[in-house]
Amino acid sequence: MQFHREPNTFVGQVNLKVQNIERSLTFYQEVIGFKVLNRSDKSAELTADGKTSLLKIEQPEHVLPKQPRTTGLYHFALLLPERSDLAHVVRHFVELNIQIGSADHLVSEALYLSDPDGNGIEIYADRNPNAWEWHNDIVAMTTEALNFPELMTNETGKWSGLPEGTIMGHIHLHVADLARAEQFYIKGLGFKVVNRFGPQALFISTGKYHHHIGLNTWAGVGAPTPAPNSTGLESYAIVFPTDADRQRVIAQLKEIGETVQEENGHLITTDPSGNRIQLQV
């Protein structure tokens, strides 16, 4: 978990819009294993350790179903502390008859599913960073079949919800223009490219993590921004090690023509595809 603390910049809380708060709360507690940290009639903050909010879900007024072929969330990714935790999640999903996708990415092993509104979720465990293969500044990643029989030999107990050490490992976004997104996230926010998937996807990080953010045009080049009251991504947080780092990034964003505004005590910027970002320390 050293890639998600100082001196690195990383993804923090993800904020989602949902159609039915009660339905989503049931899913995120009983299927994913979150605990409720704070709750109101139309929103809830969810936690793994009882202290840190990793996910906020909110039901907007006049909410619309998730709009296809738009920018926004591809998936958010929960990073588990141990490989055995991933095996426990597999057993839990099997017992609930949950349909999932899966992959071995060389750097990590991952499970994929969606919430009741179609918001994508990845749950994964990293391989030992010493085993990641770097070629200059590019990390080797691919998508291969997950070896479930071998993974399940690591099962050492029963699933009991998300372990306390679970964190928000990364976020993966649909964007309209990969070149513009690269300029924003690299020249503006200060991330570095660590992998490219042809002209369609880009993976970026700080501190030589395999990726804190993924960007893709799989919803279509030029995909529109969804309606403000559509279910999907409301915003997500990027966490800087110090306020000086945040101020430096704000200056960089302004240099490339981007804006930063204060909203309800948060500093907000928006990428060229309409994805809202809270700049936190």
From TrEMBL:
Classification via PROSITE patterns: GLYOXALASE_I_1 (PS00934), VOC (PS51819)
InterPro entries linked: Glyas_Bleomycin-R_OHBP_Dase, Glyas_Fos-R_dOase_dom, Glyoxalase_1_CS, VOC_core
Protein name as catalogued: VOC family protein
Xref: CDD domains: VOC_BsCatE_like_C
Domain VOC positions: 10-126, 167-281
Keyword terms, alphabetized: Metal-binding
Gene3D superfamilies named in the record: 2,3-Dihydroxybiphenyl 1,2-Dioxygenase, domain 1 (3.10.180.10)
